[in-house]
Amino acid sequence: MREPFAAETIAQLIRDSGDFHVDSWISTNAQFFSAMAAQVLANTLIRIFVGITVALGIASVLVVSVVQKSKEIGILRAMGTRRVQVLRLFLLQGAFMGLIGSIFGSLLALGFLLLWRGVATNPDGSPLFIVVIEPSLFALACAGATLVGVLAAAVPATRAARLDPAVAIRG
User: How many Å apart are CA 115 and CA 120, to the nearest integer?
Assistant: First the structure.
């Protein structure tokens, strides 16, 4: 069969053509599909919470950075630096933090995957699990983390850009 997921349709056609009791492999293994759906949902929720955690971490670091550098920001603003330039500076800092963190995390994950590939073997030396390393997944993770970094930096960057130079210099 070239279309394994058409089994339900084919089973229904056989049922309709005669007085046969036919079960497709899909209906026989309904618990498997239910478990897979639950796993996909759990995986998605984990990704969402990891993204939120990363965003909060980057945002908190940048909020502290804005508070600590408020005098410097005030001096820059008093010397003619535009709000857009200050905003861009902190957005770039957030993007950089996301990118560097994702590169480090991707390299760490690659190391663990290679280690797992070497450890998880059958007695005959064949792999216990097939671990496929897709470079596109690492690139997607880096791009996603950079985007999360920029989004997390939006609030602290806006706060830094709105600082009144006179108030910031006085402290």
Answer: 9
CB burial readout 85-102, b (16+ within 10 A) else e? ebbebbbebbbebbbebb
Residue 1 pLDDT class (50, 70, 90 cuts): low
Tokens 């410097």, residue located:
72
Report pLDDT digits (tens) over 72-109. 999 999 999 999 999 999 999 999 999 999 999 999 99
Evaluate the CA torsion angle 161, 85, 148, 70 in order and state its sign: negative
Q: Report, as an integer, the average pLDDT of 68-72.
A: 91
Do the beta carbons of residue 11 and residue 27 sit within 8 Å?
yes
Is residue 162 a contact partner of residue 77, using CB atoms and an 8 Å limit?
A: no
Whole-angstrom distance, CA of residue 31 vs CA of residue 14: 23
Question: What size, in residues, is the chain?
Answer: 171
Task: Kindly state the tokens that stand for 69.
Answer: 């550098």
| Cα gap 67→121, rounded to integer Å | 52
Beta bridge partners of 127: 121
